[in-house]
Amino acid sequence: MDFITVQETAVKWDISQRRVQKLCEEGRIQGVHRFGKSWMIPSDAKKPADPRKIRKKESEAYDNEP
Questions:
Q1: pLDDT tens-digit series, residues 17-37
Q2: How many C-alpha atoms does 23 have within 13 Å on its Cβ side?
Q3: Which pLDDT does position 62 carry in this prediction?
Q4: Distances from the Cα of 41 to the Cαs of 7, 37, 45, 60, in angstroms?
Q5: What pTM did the predictor assign?
Q6: DSSP letters along 10-55, please?
Q7: Other CB atoms closer than 10 Å to residue 21's CB: what's the count?
Q8: How far, in Å, CA of 32 to CA of 43, rounded?
Q9: Span 46-51, mean pLDDT?
Q10: Sign for the pseudo-dihedral over CA of 58, 18, 10, 49
Q11: Is the pLDDT score of 10 beyond 70?
Q12: In the chain, domain spans
């Protein structure tokens, strides 16, 4: 299995490195391994859905009601 770094994952998924680290810490990325202070992420890992965007869309729907 090939692994990529947090930095490479951030570029691949177009999110910040800190966000990738938080996803790793929260266990939201399957197959990650921690080596010392570094995270190694499987190269075929899927980007988890961001629940913050779902809530925002729901609130926008309420804003558009008469």
A1: 999 999 999 999 999 999 899
A2: 24
A3: 57
A4: 10, 13, 7, 34
A5: 0.74
A6: HHHHTS-HHHHHHHHHTT-STT-EEETTEEEEETTPPPPP-HHHHH
A7: 15
A8: 10
A9: 87
A10: negative
A11: yes
A12: 3-63
Using the structure block, give the residue that is written with the tokens 């629940």.
Answer: 51
CA distance 15 to 12: 8
Distance CA(63)–CA(50), nearest Å, equals: 21
Q: Residue written as tokens 């790793």?
A: 24
CB-neighbour burial class of residue 52 (10 A; exposed 0-12, middle 13-18, buried 19+): exposed
Residues 6+ apart with CB under 8 A from 4: 12, 40, 41, 42, 43
Tokens 């080596």 found at: 35
Instruction: Identify which of 11, 6, 36, 8 has the alpha carbon closest to the alpha carbon of residue 24.
Output: 6
